[in-house]
Amino acid sequence: MESLRSDVIRIVCDELEGLKGRIIARHEAAGQVASGATRDSLVVEETEDGAILWGRQAFGVLETGRKSGKVPKGFYKIIEQWMEDKGIKVNRPKSFAYLVARKIASEGTQLYRSGQKEDIYSSDMEDTIEVIMSRILRVFDAEVEHINLNFNEEERV
Predict the structure, then answer these.
(1) Distance between CA atoms of 79 and 75, rounded to whole angstroms?
(2) pTM: predicted TM-score of the whole model, two decimal places
């Protein structure tokens, strides 16, 4: 039974590592990477019963953008760092960062305002779940077949 458990955990870990790679590739292809902190926050952690794919809270807005509303204190400093990471040069960076932060707070990000969606992880998550279920089902099918073969052998004896 321990072998079965380790097979299931290995399957989940393998598929989540693959999902992690595909999410990173889509995130990069969408031109969303600035410092790389969001990309680098993706980690697959093996647990007692399977695995978990962790990422920072920012993943929630990668597909839809950030809506308007309350922003963190000193948000303009985050925008300044983003500008530096992206290589954006302007005459008055502090003023520009402040204005961008204010615009995001009042109207949301450009992606949010456009009403469009970047498919960074949603569809691939569903596909990955299907693949995990299919692979685990094959492992259980093989185990049941093995049990049936052993049971039939015992009946003949």
Answers:
(1) 6
(2) 0.79
d(CA 14, CA 42): 14
How is residue 51 annotated by DSSP? E
- β-bridge partners, 22: none
Tokens of 79: 């925008």
* pLDDT band at 92; cut points 50, 70, 90: very high
- Find out whether 19 and 124 touch, Cβ atoms under 8 Å: yes
Helix boundaries (H) for the chain:
2-29, 37-40, 75-86, 93-107, 110-114, 122-156
How big is the chain by its Cα radius of gyration, in Å? Answer: 23
pLDDT in tens, 101-140: 999 999 999 999 999 999 999 999 999 999 999 999 998 8
**Rounded distance between C-alpha atoms, residue 82 and residue 91, angstroms:** 16
Confirm if 75 and 125 have CB atoms less than 8 A apart.
no
**Number of other CB atoms surrounding residue 120 within 10 Å:** 23
Q: In terms of Cα–Cα distance, which of 54, 55, 66, 52 is closest to 107?
A: 66
Write out the two tokens for 58: 């920012």
Are 68 and 104 in contact, with CB atoms under 8 Å apart?
yes
Cross-strand pairs, 131: none
